[in-house]
Amino acid sequence: MLPGGRLLVCGVGLIGGSVAAGLREQGAETIIGVDTDRQALAAAQRAGLIDATGWPDDLGPTDLVLIAVPTLTVASVLAELWDGERGVLAGGAVVTDVASVKQSVLDAALASCGRMPANLVPGHPIAGSERSGVAAARADLFRGHRVILTPVEQTAAAAIDRVRAAWEALGAEVCTMPVADHDRILAMTSHLPHLLAFALVDTLGRVPEHEAVFRFAAGGFRDFTRIASSDPVMWSDIFAANAEAVGGILDALERELDELRALLDAGDREGLRSIFTRAKALRDTHVIGASSRD
Amino acid sequence: MLPGGRLLVCGVGLIGGSVAAGLREQGAETIIGVDTDRQALAAAQRAGLIDATGWPDDLGPTDLVLIAVPTLTVASVLAELWDGERGVLAGGAVVTDVASVKQSVLDAALASCGRMPANLVPGHPIAGSERSGVAAARADLFRGHRVILTPVEQTAAAAIDRVRAAWEALGAEVCTMPVADHDRILAMTSHLPHLLAFALVDTLGRVPEHEAVFRFAAGGFRDFTRIASSDPVMWSDIFAANAEAVGGILDALERELDELRALLDAGDREGLRSIFTRAKALRDTHVIGASSRD
User: Fold this and answer.
1) Among A181, A200, A284, which would you mutate to test the B interface (most chain B Cβ atoms within 10 Å of its Cβ)?
2) Of A189, A272, A273, Cβ closest to residue B221
3) Mode of pairing for the β-strands spanning A173-176 and A6-10
4) If you measure CA to CA, which chain A residue comes closest to B185?
5) CA distance B290 to B294
6) What is the mean pLDDT of residues A115-137?
7) Do B229 and A288 touch (CB under 8 A)?
């Protein structure tokens, strides 16, 4: 993919660096990086992930722009790429992003460009790590993972095809869905679990003897809280951008916790066992079965 | 350890089978298994983990009894071992258990024996797996893991030493603490995370399109919900036995979720970021640092 083409990576972190590394292997001619973090840019250059830095004046027909910045920074990058109809986005370059919330990208496009450009393809790779930063970048980060694209009516089919082909070149499986479906599903499978992990760790941190408490945490706790080591900036953006969908599934979870609390208080082992049995069956069926993919 | 001695394993599942496998390597002469599940006993015999089945009439001075059954089944096993002062527990055999709640073991001893026998050493290995059953047993399951013993005033020092030596022979690090401390700490680091994992998976299972939802769950979700694949019987017993301590930390978590909800509703990125930053620092300091141990 990107044969002879240039890749512009806006935001050289875990995701931007991993796309750069992967598309380098797939024959990208030149990779240009921009980032407000000069150390990240320098590290990416030292690692051979990018060849040049700075906003390019023009991009050609086989080029691709990847926006890989925290969700609420997408607007400012789009503004830079649009640049009052003088920028590369206004000029027709194919642009995609990787934000974990998609409605906010549509909102950002309206705010920054005045409309949804046909060559902007909102996207989201369902891959990542609690590690962040370009030092954690890996060319195979997306292999076997899903990428969700959420094009809208105005989005050009050729632009979707270009973005799809780039992700497929990295070994990802690409699907499309409506923006609202994406944001609701991700609130359930990703955003709420992160909120719970942050909440649990912070709750235990407020216990006076928390050091002793953490000392007796074992593998189950380590796995359960792994996502609480995720980047706080990225995640505060995601929650601010998807507050309504997260609030909806948090309501449902709190109702479930109320139900469990009532069973606990009543000492109702059968009631607890019934819910645990249902949860175990769901996970064993739907999550274990999918493990080779994720 | 257990040189020339016999081991009686009451409950031949993941934990009982793993202790049997480990102490076999350490020179246990004979391993006897009892279990209400005949298939588990047969599997353990086929795997060479146990040599004989059935309650022994007597046990000698170098023997050890391990109770590895669901928490609320400990009482009936203790009653069998006590047998109106005619059983091996009444006869002085050193007995330990592995239940995840310790107060309920003390209660069970009072109910089954009329007192806390000096040769009964309550214990809990902080190791395990979402897998259960003897087929998952491994001789090295406890290597590098902590085991908490919660002896009481009446417990004989020699009995504690025997149990400690057995766990150390399996590569575990043994410590002691008061019963109440154990039950409170485990409510925080193990029981509440399990409740949240079961609750989240069951909540998502109630969403009409839950199959589509689970399809887009990635590695973070898989790790976060791994413990929701745990044994429902074991866990309903644990929650029934430790309801008060679990309820206390669940209260604290729900207050934290209320706080996060208010920040979400207000779109307060700074407030969210501040909590996430604190949680990430706590986990990176206290949990990552402990990862080689667990």
Assistant:
1) A200
2) A189
3) unpaired
4) A213
5) 7
6) 92
7) yes
**Element spanning B219, H or E:** helix B219-225
B182-290: same fold as B6-177? no
Decide if B247 contacts B83 (C-beta within 8 A).
no
**Chain A residue numbers touching B246 (CB-CB < 8 A):** 264
Give the number of other CB atoms < 10 A from CB of residue B288. 14
Q: Which residues pair with B147 in a beta bridge?
A: B125, B174
- Domain ranges across chain B: 6-177, 182-290
For range B68-90, the mean pLDDT: 94
Among A211, A220, A237, select the one facing B190 at the smallest CB separation. A220
Instruction: Name chain B contacts of A272, Cβ cutoff 8 Å.
Output: 235-236, 239-240
The third-level CATH classification (topology) of the domain covering B182-290 is 6-phosphogluconate dehydrogenase C-terminal fold (1.10.3660)
Burial of A45 (0-12, 13-18, 19+ CB in 10 A): middle
Which neighbouring-strand residues pair with A7? A31, A64
Say yes or no for a CB contact (<8 Å) between A229 and B280.
yes
Measured between beta carbons, the chain B residues lying within 8 angstroms of A142 are none
Least-confidence region, from B84-88, B119-123, B246-250: B84-88
Residue A291 has pLDDT above 90, yes or no: no
Crossing angle, helix B179-186 and helix B103-113, to 10 degrees?
130
pLDDT of residue A57: 82
pLDDT digits 0-9 by tens, B213-237: 999 988 889 999 999 999 999 999 9
Nearest chain A Cα distance for residue B231, angstroms: 8
Q: Is A268 helix (H, G, I), strand (E, B) or coil?
A: coil
Kindly state the helix (H) or strand (E) to which residue A124 belongs, with its residue range. Answer: strand A123-125
Nearest CB among A214, A277, A290 relative to B215 is that of A290
List CB contacts (< 8 A) between A150 and chain B: none
DSSP E strands in chain B: the ranges are: 6-10, 30-34, 52-53, 64-67, 94-97, 120-121, 123-125, 146-149, 173-176
Q: May I ask the CATH architecture of the domain A6-177? A: 3-Layer(aba) Sandwich (3.40)
ipTM: 0.91
